[in-house]
Amino acid sequence: MWIDTHCHLDAAEFAPDRDQVVAAAHAAGVSRIIVPAVELHGFAAVRDCCQRYAGCFPAYGIHPMYTPAAQESDLQALREWLENERPLAVGEIGLDYFVPGLDRERQQFFFIEQLKLAREFNLPVLLHVRRAIDLVLKALRQIRVPGGIAHAFNGSRQQAEVFIGLGFKLGFGGAMTWPRATHLRELASGLPADSLVLETDAPDMSPVFLAVPPGGQPQRQRNAPEYLPRIAETLAHLRGISLAEVATLNRRNAESVMPLLP
């Protein structure tokens, strides 16, 4: 049994064939999928998606890339969703200092306020962190939440250890499958086994076997939760363990950091 800890199943890319995407995931053994929202206007779509498909579970939050359009009143709406829907986590939230043009102070405001909500409702958080790891860690030290997942982790070993000390797991996905991602692969092979979880971030973060077809040129292709076991093969190879052992550690780690996961 596999758990995809981060998959945007509600995304428009899946609109034409979402039923088939979920069926393929289940056929591949991916029996549980966590679907994080990114903006208030998408909360209902995430909820409806998770109600429609067995094994799918929602998280609600305002993604840093969506803060330009967010209103402060969205935070009160988020509070109501957390209270009434009882999701697995608050997310996807965080900071993104990679994308140009995003107001950093505005990002920080929404991030801090959502951390406060996570603390109030005793929920873990699903973190988006790009070029802002130290600032995210600073906020997490100030506003202690019951752990969570640092999605698509790409920091240093020292930063990883701080996340782990704060009760977080570190998400690894398709980026780890690329041979040139030497730093990521070193982290995946060397970090404690109980600190890792697997994710697809579908439809994004395509693994190498999708982006580089045999004999072809690199091109972006849609990622999907059915590919999680193939992504896991890379982690098994890097750590020198069996695929079954990877499935077990992924399940245990996901369940430990998200206790509401059925």
SSE arrangement:
Elements: E1 2-4, H1 18-27, E2 30-36, H2 43-52, E3 56-60, H3 73-85, E4 89-96, H4 104-121, E5 125-130, H5 133-142, E6 148-151, H6 157-165, E7 168-172, H7 182-190, E8 196-198, H8 208-211, H9 228-239, H10 243-257
Parallel strand pairs: 1-2, 2-3, 3-4, 4-5, 5-6, 6-7, 7-8
CATH superfamily: Metal-dependent hydrolases
- Largest sheet: number of strands, sense, barrel closure: 8 strands, parallel
Q: What order do the SSEs take from the amino end to the carboxyl end, as H and E? A: EHEHEHEHEHEHEHEHHH
CATH topology: TIM Barrel
Assembly annotation: single chain
Give the overall form.
globular
Main traits of this protein?
single chain, 262 residues, alpha/beta, TIM Barrel, eight-stranded parallel β-sheet, globular
Please characterize this protein's 3D structure.
The protein is of the alpha/beta class. The chain has a single domain, classed as Metal-dependent hydrolases (TIM Barrel, Alpha-Beta Barrel), CATH 3.20.20.140. It is 42% helix and 16% strand. It is built from ten helices and eight strands. The protein has helices at 18-27, 43-52, 73-85, 104-121, 133-142, 157-165, 182-190, 208-211, 228-239, 243-257, and strands spanning 2-4, 30-36, 56-60, 89-96, 125-130, 148-151, 168-172, 196-198. It has an eight-stranded parallel beta sheet. Strand 3, helix 3 and strand 4 (89-96) form a beta-alpha-beta unit. The longest helix has 18 residues, at 104-121.
Summarize the structure.
This protein is an alpha/beta fold and about 260 residues long. Helix content is about 40%, strand content about 15%.
